[in-house]
Specification:
This protein has 31 helices and 21 strands. It is an alpha+beta fold.
C-alpha cells in the first residue's frame, strides 16, 4: 500500500473550509456560554451574600468573643494584669488564628478591649436629666481608637504608667454626638461609683469623630458612637440618657474598682469581600463550631474557660440560603433547557455533516475502509477544529467573568467540546456500520421507527410524566429531575409530533392531487420526502420553543408580581399622603403636573373605633364615583358607586368593608367613633378583599359627603397616569406629605443581587435557547438548499415560473415550520399549565415577606407563546423566499451542474 501523499485532515479542511470555520464558531460560542453560566451564577450569589452581610447591622454580623472578668480568688495584681493591652493583645492574636475557614475576619474593623457589663449612674448635677434621672454610663477601654477616630477638640486619653483598681482618676474621650447630648467638653469631669474607694473620676480630654461611623468598630456597640434616650420602666414614662466614655486601653484595670462586672471582649468583624455564596453552608458550620464546637474550645484555651461567642451572622446566612433556595430551581430550569437545545444543535451539526458526506463515506467503506479507522479519522478531523475553538471559548468566558472557581467552567466547556468532537464520528459510524452500495429510502412518511426507538421514546415519556408529577407535588426543589421537567415535556412532545407528522401529509396529498395546479401537490410530496433525520431539528425547535415559552412566562410572572405588589402598596400609580388635612388647592395643582391623568381625594382615619371602642379600624372617606372608577382602573376591589350612596338623610352610611371587618360587625348599622371625637352610623353594604385607599385585613370605606368636620377633609391623593414625575410631584406636594410612586415601590422588591443576577441569567438563557433554535432551523434549511436549488433549475427548464418556484419552496418548508410552531406553542402552554402548581416565583420576584402579594404564581404569557412560534414561521418563509430569489438570479445551467455533481 502506497503512503498517503496528503494527510487526511489537511485535505478535508482545505476541501471544506467554510464548514470547518462554522463548526469552530459554533463550538467556541457554545463553550463560552457553557463556561460563563456557572461563573455568572457564582458572581451574583457572591454579590448577594456580600450585600446581605453589608446591609445587616454590624451588631448582628460581628463575632463577639467575650469572657468574664478575672476571678475574685486570683491575686489583685494578676487580675489587673489580665486586663492590660499586652495580655489582651496576645489573646487577640490567638483568637484570630482560631477562626475556622472559610470565615474570614477584617482586621481593620476588628478590635478588643474591656468594658463594663452594666451601666454606672453619673450623679454629677450638671449632666442633663430629662426626667430627673441621672445618666447611665458605660466605660470602655477599646484598642485602636487613634486609628478609627479623628480628634476634633482636645486630645486622646492617656493613662499613667501603672493604673490599678485604686486609681482615683482616668482620662476618656467622647464622640461628637455624646458630647452634644451630655453637654461634655474637654476638661469635664464625670464621677461614677466606686467599691471600697471614692468615686472614680473620669476626665474628658478630647472629642472625636468616627472615621467610619457605620463600620463594625463603631457600630457593633451602638452606644460607643451615639448616646440613647431610654424610657425607664414604670407608669411615669421617665427618660434618661445612656452613653459610653472611651478610656485609654492602659486604663482598663481602674474598672475593677467599680461596682459592676467587667467583660473582656475580642470583637471580630467578618470580611464581606472574601465571602462566597457557594460556601454559605460551610460558613454556617464554622459559626456553629465557634458557638458550641471545637472552635469554641480553641477560643477558650486561648482566652478563658468562661469565654462565649455570640453573633447574628448565622441568621443572615440562613436568610440568604432560603432566598437562594427559592431562586436556584428556576435558574436550573433555564440552564437545563438551554443546555439541551445547545446539545441538540451540536448533534444536529454533526448529523448534517455526516448526511452531507454520506456518499463520500459510503464510497470509502465500499473501498475497504474499516469502521474503526473511519471513525478515528473523523474524530481527529473534528478535534483539530473543535479543541482550539473550545479552549478559545473557555478563555473568553474566564476573562469576561473573573472568579475563583474555574472547575465548573472548565467541565462545561470540555463537555461541549466532547459533544462536538463525537457527534460526526458517532453519526457516521451508525449510518455506515454496514457497507451499502445504495442507501434505502429514508423519507419521513415511509420509514417506520424501530422497536428500540419505540422503547426509548416510551421510557422518555414515562420519565417526563414522573418529573412533571414530582414538580407538581413537591415544587421546584432544585433536584435535576424537577428542573428537567419542562425540557422533558418538550422532548416528549417533539417525539410525538414526529410520529404524527406523516399522517396529515398523507391526508393532504390526496385532495391536493386533484387540484389543477401542480404546486400544491408537488410541495406536499416534497415535504413528505423529507429525510427522517428531521427529528433533530424538530427536537431542537420544540425544546427551544418550550423553554422560551416557560422562561418568558417566568419573567412575565416576576414582573407582574412586582407590579401587583407595588400597586397594592401604593393603591394607584402614585400616592400623596399627610398626617393632617391637605391644602384644598392641592388636587388642582397636582392635575397640572405632567403625566397625571386623574386625582382621587381620600380622607383616611386610621384610628376609627367601631362599637365598643376596643379595636381600631382604618376608615376612608371617598367620593363614590371617582373612587369606583379608580378601583376599576387598578382592578383592586372594583365595586359599583351606587353601593356607597345613602338612601335617606337619617340612614346609616353604606360602607365597603373587608371580609374580616364584615364578619366582626355584620350587616346591621353600628356606630363608629372618629379621631376628632365625632361619631357616625355605618352599615356594611359591600365586601371586598382589597381596596386602593387602605391596605390590610381591616378597613371601612364610606361616602365622604357623610362625614363632617376635619374627618371630611382629604388627607391623601391617589393619582393615576403614565410616566409620573416624582421630583415634580414632591415639589408641588407639601413638605410634610409623603409621596409614593408605584415605579419606585416596584424597584424596592429587587432587594438582592441574587434576584437581579438570577433574572439576568434567566433572560440570557432564554435568549440563547431562542438563538440556538434559529440556528437549528437555519442548519436544517441550508443543508437542503443545494438540492432545492437543483430542483428549481430542473423545473424551470420545464416551464416553471419564478413566482411558482417561490411558492413551491415556501409551501414545501411550511409543514415542518408550522408543525414546530404550533407544537411548540401548544407544548409551552401545556407545560406551564402542568407545572404552575409547583413553581413559586415569590423568591425571585419579591424581596421581602411584607409584600401585600403573598405568592407570585406562574401564569401563561401569550407573547412568550406567540412571538417565538411566529418568528419560526416567518424565518422559514423568509429563507425560502430568499433562496428562490437568489436561485432565479444565478441561472439554470450552473444549478444543474451543481446538482449533477452531487
Amino acid at each position: 500500500m502506497n503512503p498517503v501523499r496528503a494527510p487526511w485532515i489537511r485535505t478535508r479542511l482545505r476541501a471544506a473550509p467554510g464548514a470547518a470555520c462554522a463548526l469552530a464558531v459554533l463550538v467556541a460560542l457554545t463553550a463560552c456560554l457553557a463556561a460563563a453560566f456557572p461563573r455568572a451564577v457564582d458572581r451574583y450569589e457572591d454579590a448577594g451574600l456580600r450585600r446581605a452581610v453589608e446591609r445587616a447591622r454590624p451588631a448582628s454580623t460581628s463575632l463577639d468573643v467575650s469572657a468574664e472578668q478575672p476571678g475574685l480568688l486570683m491575686p489583685q495584681e494578676q487580675r489587673e494584669e489580665a486586663l492590660r493591652p499586652g495580655a489582651l493583645g496576645g489573646q487577640y492574636t490567638q483568637v484570630l488564628a482560631g477562626v475556622p475557614h472559610p470565615l474570614a475576619v477584617d482586621p481593620g474593623q476588628s478590635t478588643y478591649g474591656v468594658r463594663t457589663a452594666g451601666s454606672l449612674p453619673a450623679p454629677d448635677p450638671w449632666l442633663p436629666r430629662p426626667s430627673g434621672l441621672p445618666p447611665q454610663l458605660t466605660l470602655a477601654a477599646q484598642h485602636g481608637l487613634a486609628q478609627h477616630a479623628t480628634v476634633r477638640t482636645g486630645r486622646l486619653p492617656r493613662a499613667g504608667r501603672h493604673v490599678t483598681a485604686a486609681t482615683a482618676e482616668v482620662e476618656a474621650a467622647v464622640t461628637l454626638e455624646t458630647a452634644k447630648s451630655l453637654h461634655l467638653k474637654p476638661g469635664s469631669v464625670v464621677h461614677v461609683p466606686g467599691v471600697e474607694r471614692p468615686p472614680l473620676a473620669v476626665r474628658v480630654t478630647g472629642i472625636v469623630a468616627p472615621r467610619d461611623p457605620d463600620g463594625a468598630y463603631w457600630s457593633t456597640e451602638p452606644l460607643l458612637r451615639s448616646p440613647s434616650l431610654v424610657l425607664a420602666p414604670g407608669p411615669d414614662h421617665d427618660k434618661y440618657w445612656r452613653a459610653t466614655l472611651l478610656l485609654a486601653p492602659e486604663a482598663a484595670p481602674a474598672l475593677l474598682g467599680t461596682p459592676v462586672n467587667l467583660w473582656r471582649y475580642w470583637q471580630l468583624a467578618p470580611s464581606p469581600a472574601v465571602l462566597h455564596g457557594h460556601e454559605a453552608d460551610r460558613l454556617k458550620s464554622a459559626i456553629a463550631s465557634l458557638q458550641a464546637g471545637p472552635a469554641l474550645d480553641r477560643m477558650r484555651s486561648a482566652t478563658d474557660p468562661s469565654t462565649t461567642v455570640t453573633t447574628g451572622l448565622d441568621d443572615v446566612l440562613t436568610a440568604f440560603t432560603q432566598l437562594r433556595g427559592g431562586v436556584r430551581p428556576l435558574v436550573a430550569v433555564a440552564a437545563f433547557g438551554t443546555g439541551t437545545v445547545a446539545a441538540v444543535v451540536l448533534l444536529l451539526a454533526g448529523g448534517l455533516a455526516a448526511d452531507r458526506r454520506r456518499t463520500e463515506l459510503a464510497l470509502l467503506r465500499a473501498r475497504g475502509a474499516s469502521l474503526r479507522g473511519l471513525t478515528g479519522r473523523l474524530s481527529a478531523e473534528t478535534a483539530v477544529v473543535a479543541l482550539p475553538a473550545g479552549a478559545l471559548g473557555l478563555g473568553a468566558a474566564l476573562l469576561a467573568l473573573p472568579g475563583e472557581r474555574a472547575a465548573y467552567a472548565v467541565a462545561a466547556a470540555a463537555t461541549v467540546t466532547a459533544v462536538a468532537c463525537t457527534a460526526l464520528p458517532l453519526r457516521a459510524a451508525a449510518a455506515h456500520r454496514v457497507v451499502r452500495l445504495h442507501g434505502a429510502r429514508a423519507d419521513v412518511t415511509s420509514v417506520r421507527p424501530s422497536r428500540r426507538r419505540t422503547v426509548a421514546e416510551l421510557t422518555l415519556v414515562v420519565v417526563a410524566l414522573g418529573a412533571v408529577e414530582t414538580l407538581r407535588r413537591q415544587g421546584a426543589s432544585g433536584d435535576q429531575l424537577t428542573s428537567l421537567a419542562p425540557v422533558l415535556t418538550g422532548v416528549a412532545a417533539a417525539l410525538l409530533l414526529v410520529r404524527l407528522y406523516p399522517f396529515p401529509l398523507r391526508g393532504l396529498a390526496r385532495p391536493a392531487a386533484r387540484l389543477r395546479g401542480a404546486i400544491g401537490h408537488l410541495s406536499l410530496a416534497r415535504a413528505g420526502r423529507t429525510s427522517a433525520s428531521a427529528v433533530l431539528p424538530l427536537l431542537a425547535l420544540l425544546t427551544a420553543l418550550t423553554t422560551a415559552a416557560f422562561g418568558g412566562s417566568v419573567l412575565a410572572g416576576v414582573h407582574e408580581a412586582r407590579d401587583q405588589a407595588a400597586l397594592l402598596t401604593v393603591g394607584a400609580d402614585a400616592r400623596i399622603e399627610a398626617t393632617g388635612a391637605l391644602p384644598s388647592d392641592l388636587p388642582g395643582r397636582i392635575r397640572r403636573t405632567p403625566g397625571v391623568r386623574a386625582v382621587t381625594p381620600v380622607s383616611i382615619t386610621y384610628q376609627a373605633r367601631p362599637t365598643d371602642l376596643t379595636q381600631s379600624v382604618p376608615l376612608a372617606g371617598v367620593d363614590p364615583s371617582r373612587y369606583a372608577e379608580l378601583a376599576r382602573a387598578t382592578r383592586i376591589g372594583p365595586f359599583s358607586a351606587g353601593e356607597l350612596k345613602r338612601r335617606g338623610a337619617g340612614d346609616a352610611l353604606p360602607a365597603l368593608a373587608s371580609p374580616t371587618t364584615a364578619r366582626t360587625y355584620g350587616t346591621r348599622p353600628f356606630p363608629v367613633r372618629l379621631e376628632d371625637g365625632t361619631s357616625i352610623s355605618v352599615r356594611i353594604a359591600a365586601v371586598r378583599a382589597r381596596t386602593p385607599a387602605v391596605t390590610g385585613d381591616n378597613f371601612l370605606v364610606v361616602d365622604r359627603a357623610g362625614l363632617t368636620g376635619p374627618a371630611s377633609r382629604p388627607t391623601a391623593l391617589l393619582l393615576t397616569g403614565t410616566h409620573l414625575d416624582g421630583p415634580g410631584l414632591r415639589g408641588v406636594a407639601p413638605a410634610s406629605a409623603d409621596v409614593q410612586l408605584r415605579s419606585e415601590e416596584r424597584a424596592n422588591y429587587v432587594d438582592s443581587p441574587l434576584q437581579s443576577g438570577a433574572e439576568r441569567v434567566y433572560t440570557a438563557a432564554v435568549a440563547a435557547g431562542a438563538g440556538y433554535a434559529v440556528l437549528a432551523l437555519l442548519l436544517s434549511l441550508l443543508r437542503t438548499a443545494p438540492e432545492r436549488a437543483a430542483l428549481l433549475a430542473r423545473l424551470r427548464t420545464m416551464g416553471l415560473t419564478r413566482p411558482q418556484g417561490r411558492r413551491l419552496l415556501i409551501l414545501e418548508s411550511l409543514p415542518q415550520a408550522a408543525l414546530a410552531a404550533a407544537g411548540g406553542a401548544l407544548t409551552g402552554w401545556a407545560t406551564i399549565r402542568l407545572l404552575s402548581p409547583g413553581v413559586d416565583l415569590t423568591a425571585i420576584a419579591l424581596a421581602t415577606a411584607q409584600s401585600p402579594t403573598q405568592e407570585a404564581a406562574l401564569h401563561t404569557d401569550a407573547l412568550s407563546l406567540a412571538v417565538p412560534a411566529t418568528a419560526i414561521v416567518l424565518l422559514t418563509v423568509g429563507v425560502a423566499a430568499v433562496q428562490a430569489w437568489w436561485t432565479g438570479r444565478r441561472g439554470a445551467v450552473a444549478e444543474l451542474r451543481a446538482g449533477d455533481t452531487r
